[in-house]
Design a protein that fits this description.
homodimer, alpha+beta, 13 helices, 10 strands, globular, EC 1.11.1.- (chains A, B), transmembrane helix (chains A, B), heme (chains A, B)
Chain lengths: ~425, ~425
């Protein structure tokens, strides 16, 4: 499901695609100069299949939702919503509208056919317009439902309390976290990833627009640079500690491992989640100033890898296996006992593996002369109780990295399976709500 | 000065470029996958000159600073600093260090040769590393000095009070603004623009890093998508109201108009500013929810252009001249008397023109269920007293757009001229401080 297809395809609903709206010449101009697209296309390099691929669309439908094992796009806009009504029908109506819009948006179409330029000049446009002319940019939109969607303040708002999966726990309090409630949790989340941030922001903004009266933005987070690779074709990016991040991440090609560690299997819990996954977010504030005043040797000890190449300490290549047993001539382990890569390794965690999909962020300043910067950690797991929770308990207790990070936001969402091709009745959450 | 050159060039100081650090094969891998670079290069599309151009370097030196008439890059990280010392020598030392680093960074080099991987493992790295392997991405770094750099609380901290240009005014209070002091003003600003946000953030972060003890981050603003074109080659991007923005902007090709409206001329004020420009910032919060519930007709009346094409109302092409005189069959002007494009036009403003260089932003949420989104307005002018101030006074009083916007941050900085080729003694601010 992560293989991009042509964005020239029309959805079942028909209508003009954003690219067609302007015709061939217009597309060239729009792609050259429209905000954000310049970085993708420059002067319309039709000769470059690589550039075109980054502009293409990712199939919206499939066994699983897109945006999980899809090759990690470069930019992200994550949004958590509070449902502001107790009316189940309103929620279902919104989710159906979201679904139709989301499928169109991932095809580089307006949220509603003709919406941006006004189906009726006396009505508000049905698309906000700022993505007109921009290519699909591999946009994926991934939806999830938080614990409070099932029960809030003891109340079963939408008649789904008995369908709450046991795996959708209230995450425990971990050591070394200072959670901001305003940046945590939420009833519904949408993860928008794209290679053009204007495309991702446009998608979230239009979903939030039509949610008016039914759901409201609880928080949103822009991620400017990806920190994970999710396919073997992608090279490993760097986080704001300057280290390659995610060398050992699960990859889309590891289908067996994905079945074991990412996708909810039949019998794992309620049937509506089969083929889905659990999304964990952690807004991790990095104390980059403290880090930047630390020696290279200490930085590499803390991480357990070399900063330049990303290779395990004692080795030369990024993808050399982590060597947890060999000791240096001084009798100390090559990889420190508290090094991040050791503690986060499946060897240390009885085989736990997660699919990471995080993004670097910079949100202004903290008011104390520093950048408010860090990593918006996203992971997809089959069951957080047996994966993320024990991993984070281990890391929060022992990781040498804790001196330089604080977790400031957290959430857990249940992401249902994908919508199947041709299933016109399916919508986001229909396995739960129908 | 806006024409990109090869980023393979070595600076006078020598040292490895980030691209060379990994060798040709490494570059391919890094460009493919490193955070942010994917959007530029995809799978190393060496065949694409357009993509390569967006990765190239922009000359750091010239008559004027880069980042003013340079073709507007797609992403921005703007940072305002407070100087935290009263020691002029410390400030000069920091500005010299900044200058050397900035020139290297714009060439896709580490802030200090070998810095990221550690000149000395027992010392902190002299580059934070997160841009290793990323191309120059047309990075420009533009410096400016605010009024408080000259006098703060009545004190001439650095012995330059008598060099404060009369044009570097304390901006007046305008109608319809709710200024946040924490997002306004500052002693020194650095505008980082690049086609890869990781490159822009890396640059600001490294300048902030070495400023420790001398200057501290007052605020920083990430802009995810440009809202201006500054060359005729660039197509007009869209702002978050969904309209093309900056159709009538001054362009790099208009050298006569730039001399008249952007560049400080000999005799305009103190000699140290000749060849420089004044940078105005306005953080403009857009009430996008209100806007999105407004009819297309009203949106187009408020702006004065058509949403789809960007053409003036009554015309078909974006670049058709604005027609302020023709009336409709109903006897009303085609372009409303309070339309934004009418009030901001040089025809209405006695010939005032400014060079705009703004960026779309989304900073989480406002806490009331909306995205905190808008436009970080940046303009460069020869003299704000005769350009920005009367323009903003007119707009803030009469613009129909005021119903949908609030200015929440403001600043004015004096940007000195560029550093000339081969002038090894010059540094950021040297015409002011030497």
């Amino acid at each position: 499901m992560s293989s991009p297809s042509s964005d020239a395809a029309e959805p079942a609903g028909g209508g003009l695609s954003r690219r067609r709206l302007f015709g061939a010449a217009g597309v060239t101009a729009a792609v050259v100069g429209a905000a954000g697209a310049g970085a993708l296309a420059g002067r319309a390099s039709a000769s470059s299949t690589a550039t075109e691929e980054l502009q293409n669309s990712v199939p919206f439908r499939g066994e699983h939702q897109a945006g999980i094992v899809t090759a990690a796009q470069d930019r992200m806009h994550f949004c958590s919503f509070d449902v502001t009504t107790d009316d189940r029908d309103d929620v279902v109506a919104m989710l159906k509208e979201w679904t139709a819009m989301a499928e169109r948006l991932t095809l580089a179409q307006e949220a509603v056919a003709g919406g941006a330029v006004g189906l009726n000049p006396y009505a508000p446009p049905a698309d906000t317009g700022e993505a007109l002319g921009l290519p699909a940019s591999q946009l994926t939109l991934t939806v999830g439902f938080g614990p409070t969607f099932f029960t809030k303040d003891g109340k079963d708002r939408f008649g789904v309390a008995d369908k709450r999966p046991q795996a959708l726990i209230d995450l425990p309090k971990f050591p070394n976290e200072t959670m901001d409630p305003a940046r945590s949790h939420g009833d519904i989340c949408v993860q928008a990833c794209a290679n053009d941030p204007q495309v991702a922001v446009h998608a979230i903004r239009n979903l939030a627009r039509v949610a008016f009266g039914t759901a409201a933005v609880r928080y949103s987070q822009l991620g400017f640079g990806r920190t994970s690779s999710t396919t073997r074709e992608q090279a490993t990016p760097r986080n704001l500690f300057g280290f390659k991040d995610g060398t050992s991440n699960l990859k889309a090609e590891d289908t067996g491992a994905l079945d074991a560690h990412v996708w909810v299997a039949d019998g794992d819990g309620p049937a509506w989640m089969t083929g889905g996954s659990y999304l964990v977010t952690r807004r991790i504030r990095m104390r980059i100033e403290n880090w930047d005043r630390t020696t290279l040797m200490e930085q590499e000890r803390v991480i357990g890898r070399l900063k330049g190449s990303g290779a395990p300490i004692g080795y030369a290549d990024e993808f050399d296996a982590l060597d947890f047993t060999t000791k240096s001539s001084k009798g100390t382990p090559l990889i420190d006992m508290a090094a991040h890569v050791r503690l986060a390794s499946k060897e240390n965690l009885n085989g736990i593996e997660i699919l990471r999909r995080g993004y670097n962020f910079t949100d202004g300043t903290d008011g104390f002369g520093h950048l408010d910067a860090g990593l918006f950690f996203i992971a997809f797991v089959r069951d957080p109780r047996s994966s993320f929770v024990p991993m984070q308990m281990e890391l929060s207790r022992r990781d040498a990295l804790n001196e330089y990070i604080t977790h400031t936001g957290t959430a857990l969402f249940a992401c249902p399976p994908g919508l199947r091709d041709g299933d016109a009745d399916a919508y986001w959450g229909s396995t739960l709500l129908s």
